[in-house]
Input
Amino acid sequence: MVSFSQLTYAQRGKEHPHPLARELFAVMERKRSNLSVAADVATKAELLALADRVGPYVCVLKTHIDVIADFDADLVAQLQTLAEKHDFLIFEDRKFADIGNTVKLQYGGGVYRIADWAHITNCHVIPGEGIIQGLAEVGAPKGRGLLLLAEMSTKGMLATGAYTDKNVEMAVANDFVIGFIGSRRFTEERDLITMTPGVGLHASGDALGQQYRTPEMIVTENGSDIIIVGRGIYGPGKDVAAEAQRYRDAGWAAYENRLK
Output
């Protein structure tokens, strides 16, 4: 059996059973991009400006909506307009971690109403499989998709071994799950997308334990599908559009090298 990582994104999109995964693969092919930008900014104006500047180069914009100090409904409307303008999906990095009934309320209601506008969200499976079922009850009817946090990119993270294996087991068994946050391809039982944070053009780290790995390490060698980049693109003194283009090109080159 040929590994899913040896197939093109177009081939995988054609055969994938989940409509959102098919849409994501189509965006990636159209834009020749496997780049997601982590928009870790604190104001509405910053988020919208960043989304507009990186939009042409990304397949996914990753948000942390609960850090936006001046969040309002207009932000969501403008973000959706930018997603349509630049042809990207929105991933709200909420990292749900509660019982099924509670996450239903957090995902579908509250101030942010995440399921109404975020194509993708994610969760820890610490509470058990009920968290996936709760999120699916809200998100599946809206055509949304879920990532499981099989690993994280920080030094000393505890998502390893049997815990990671349990993530894989739950993902394979639940159709609402489209993939993982992690550093590698985890299974060939079905086609699950891996998105990897902590990617930089030079392997290094920061003072708070973040560990950076290159696109070649993550995509070519480990079989991951989408690189997630934040400060490497919009840190102090960066030309945001130029850096986004540079990372997009590096990620796509790593993908093409994987197919050889």
